[in-house]
Specification:
The complex is a heterodimer of chains A (about 290) and B (about 220).
Chain A: E1 2-10, E2 16-25, E3 30-35, H1 41-48, E4 56-61, E5 64-65, H2 71-77, E6 78-81, H3 93-97, H4 99-103, H5 108-121, H6 138-151, E7 156-160, H7 168-185, E8 188-193, H8 196-202, E9 205-210, E10 214-219, H9 221-226, H10 231-237, E11 247-251, E12 254-258, E13 264-267, H11 276-289
Parallel strand pairs in A: 3-8, 3-9, 6-7, 7-8
Antiparallel strand pairs in A: 1-2, 1-4, 4-5, 9-10, 11-12, 12-13
Chain B: H1 5-14, H2 25-57, H3 61-73, H4 76-87, H5 92-115, H6 119-127, H7 132-162, H8 165-168, H9 175-183, H10 187-214
The chains are: A alpha/beta (about 290), B mainly alpha (about 220).
Bound molecules: adenosine-5'-triphosphate and magnesium ion.
C-alpha cells in the first residue's frame, strides 16, 4: 500500500507544485493520475521512490515512511518508467534493460535472457538488442523504458506517460499487455497520462488533478463518468462536449453509436450469432451497393 | 660548420655520437618523458579526485575555477627558480612547478568531464537505483572520458614543453642540450634540443588525441 498524507512540495525558486495531497493506493491497485501539464503528477510520482522529497507531509509504503528507507534500495525495488525514456545513452538496449537486475546482483546471463523476453512483451524486435538509444525511434525508446521498468519484477510500478510517443496501434497493444500483466502479476501501479481514455482503460481508480496537485475527483472510471464532481472534471472527461453522451442512430440498416455532436463513436455489435467477419463482409457489400 | 645553424642542428641530430651513452638523445628523451609523466601523475592524483567531486556534486566550483585560473597565471620559470631557492638544486623544484602547471588542465578536464553528462541521464541513473559512486563511475565518467583525457592532453603538452627547465636547475632531460648550448654558445645543439622537445610534444599530443577518440562512449557519437 502506498499512502500520501498531506504532502506538499515547494521547489527551490518558489514553485508550489503540490499544495496538500492525500491519497491511499491499495496493494495490487492501479491508480492513474491525470491532469493538465504542470499539475504536479511527476512530482507526486517521484515522491514514492524518493527522487523528490516532500517539503512537508509523509509518503509511506506498507506502513514505512519512505524517508526511513535507504533511497538506493528503495529505487531498485520500484519499477520506474520515466516521462522521457531516460535511457543511458552509452549502453545498449539490452544493457539498459538489465541495469536494475544487475545492480541487484542478478547474474548477467540470467538478466539478459529475461531482458529478451521483456523485449518481446513490449513488442521490440530482437534485432534491436545491441543498438544504442540514439539509434532508436522515440517510440522504441519508450518501450525499452517500459521493459526496463519491468525488469526487476518490482511490486510497485511507476509509469509516467509511458506510451506518449508510440503510435495508436502499438499503444493499444502495450495497454493490452499492461492489462494482462496487471491481471496476472497484480502489481501496484501508479500511472500518469494525459489521455483520459487510457486512464479509464487502465485505472482501477482515476485521480483527476488540478494545478497544485489538488484532487478534483478520485474514483473508479464508472463513478467519474456517472457523476463528474464539477465542470473541470466534466470538461476533462469530455462530458461537456457531449463526447460521453452517446446514442444510437440507424444508418444503412446498422446501429451506429454517435456522440452529442453527431460524430460517430462506433458501431453496435451485431446481435445474434453472426461472426464478426461475416458482419464486416456484410458491411462492405452494403457500402458498395449504396 | 656551414653558415646555417638550422642545417647544423640537423647535422648535430644526425651525428651517431649523440645517440648513445648517458648524455645521448634516447636517455635524455626518457628522462624528459619521466619528468613529464611524474609531474602529470602527481598533479592528477591531486586534481582529478577534486575535479570529479566538484563536477559530480556541483560544490566548490567557484573555488576550483579560481584556483585553476590562479595556477595558470603563475610564471613557471619564476616558480622553478623560487622552489630551487627554497628546496635547493635537483629534481624537486622543477617537479613541484610541473605539478602546479599541470593542475589547471587536469582539474578543468575532470570537472567538465563529469559535468558533461546530461542532467536527465544522471537523474535517470539515480532513479534506477544507482549509488552516487555508480553514477560517477558508470555514467558520468564513461560519458565524459574524452574530456578527462583532454585534460591529460593539455597538461602533458604544457609540462613536456616546460620540462626543459629541469636542466636549468641541474637535472637532466632534453633541456640539457638547450642550456648547455646556451652556455657554450653552441646554437646548433640548442636548436636540436628544441626540435627534440617539439617533436616529443607533437607525438604526445597526437597520441592523447587518439586516446580521446578511442575513449568516446559508444552510442553517443554513433549515428
Ligand atoms: N526540479 C524542479 N525545480 C523547480 N520546479 C519544478 C521542478 N520540477 C517540476 N517543477 C515545477 O513543478 C510543477 C509541477 O511539475 P510536474 O513535473 O510535477 O508536472 P506534471 O503534472 O508532471 O506535468 P506534465 O504533464 O507536463 O509532465 C511545474 O510548475 C514545474 O514547473
Ligand atoms: Mg510530468
Amino acid at each position: 500500500m502506498i499512502g500520501f498524507e498531506n504532502v506538499r512540495k515547494e521547489y527551490p525558486g518558489g514553485t508550489l507544485a503540490v499544495q496538500d495531497f492525500s491519497l491511499e493506493i491499495a496493494s495490487h491497485e492501479s491508480v492513474v493520475l491525470v491532469g493538465t501539464s504542470g499539475s504536479g503528477k511527476t512530482t507526486l510520482m517521484r515522491m514514492i521512490n524518493r527522487m523528490v522529497d516532500p517539503t512537508s507531509g509523509r509518503v509511506h509504503i506498507d506502513g514505512d515512511d519512505v524517508t526511513s528507507l535507504d533511497p538506493v534500495q528503495l529505487r531498485r525495488s520500484i519499477g520506474y518508467v520515466m516521462q522521457a525514456s531516460g535511457l543511458l545513452p552509452h549502453r545498449t538496449v539490452l544493457d539498459n534493460i538489465t541495469t536494475v537486475p544487475v545492480l541487484r546482483g542478478t547474474a548477467k546471463r540470467e538478466a539478459r535472457t529475461h531482458a529478451h523476453e521483456l523485449m518481446e512483451i513490449v513488442g521490440l524486435d530482437a534485432a534491436l538488442a545491441e543498438r544504442y538509444p540514439s539509434q532508436l525511434s522515440g517510440g522504441q525508446q519508450q518501450r525499452v523504458g517500459v521493459a526496463r521498468g519491468l525488469a526487476a519484477d518490482p511490486n510497485i510500478l511507476l509509469m509516467d506517460e509511458p506510451f506518449g510517443a508510440v503510435d495508436p496501434i502499438v499503444r493499444a497493444e502495450l495497454q493490452r499487455e499492461l492489462q494482462h500483466l496487471q491481471r496476472d502479476l497484480r502489481k501496484t501501479i501508479v500511472f500518469v497520462t494525459h489521455d483520459i481514455d487510457e486512464a479509464f482503460l487502465l485505472g482501477d481508480r482515476v485521480a483527476i488533478l488540478r494545478p497544485g496537485g489538488i484532487i478534483a475527483q478520485v474514483g473508479t472510471p464508472q463513478e467519474i463518468l456517472a457523476d463528474p464532481a464539477d465542470d473541470f472534471v466534466s470538461s476533462f472527461v469530455g462530458a461537456d462536449r457531449g463526447a460521453r453522451t452517446l446514442h444510437v442512430e440507424r444508418v444503412d440498416g446498422r446501429d451506429v453509436v454517435v456522440d452529442a455532436d453527431g460524430r460517430p463513436a462506433g458501431v453496435l455489435a451485431a446481435s445474434g450469432d453472426r461472426s464478426a467477419g461475416e458482419g464486416a463482409a456484410d458491411g462492405r457489400t452494403r457500402e458498395r451497393s449504396s | 660548420m656551414t653558415g646555417s645553424p638550422f642545417l647544423d642542428s640537423l647535422r648535430w641530430l644526425g651525428d651517431s655520437a649523440h645517440w648513445t651513452g648517458p648524455g645521448g638523445i634516447p636517455l635524455r628523451t626518457l628522462e624528459h618523458l619521466g619528468y613529464t609523466a611524474l609531474g602529470v601523475l602527481v598533479a592528477a592524483l591531486l586534481a582529478v579526485p577534486i575535479g570529479l567531486y566538484v563536477g559530480h556534486s556541483g560544490r566548490g566550483k567557484g573555488v576550483a575555477v579560481a584556483a585553476a585560473g590562479a595556477a595558470r597565471a603563475l610564471p613557471t620559470l619564476g616558480l622553478v627558480t623560487l622552489f630551487a631557492l627554497l628546496v635547493g638544486i635537483g629534481l624537486t623544484a622543477p617537479l613541484l612547478s610541473f605539478v602546479i602547471l599541470a593542475i589547471p588542465s587536469l582539474l578543468a578536464g575532470a570537472y567538465s568531464a563529469v559535468e558533461s553528462a546530461e542532467p536527465a541521464t544522471v537523474d535517470a541513473a539515480r532513479a534506477q537505483g544507482m549509488t552516487e559512486w555508480q553514477i560517477l563511475t558508470r555514467v558520468e565518467l564513461p560519458l565524459g572520458m574524452p574530456l578527462l583525457v583532454g585534460g591529460f592532453r593539455g597538461a602533458t603538452v604544457q609540462v613536456v614543453a616546460t620540462a626543459m627547465l629541469a636542466a636549468y636547475v641541474g637535472s637532466g632531460g632534453l633541456g640539457r642540450y638547450i642550456f648547455q648550448g646556451l652556455g657554450s654558445q653552441n646554437y646548433p645543439q640548442m636548436i636540436a634540443g628544441s626540435l627534440l622537445v617539439i617533436a616529443l610534444a607533437l607525438v604526445l599530443d597526437l597520441t592523447l588525441l587518439l586516446a580521446q577518440r578511442l575513449t568516446a562512449p559508444p552510442g553517443v557519437r554513433a549515428s
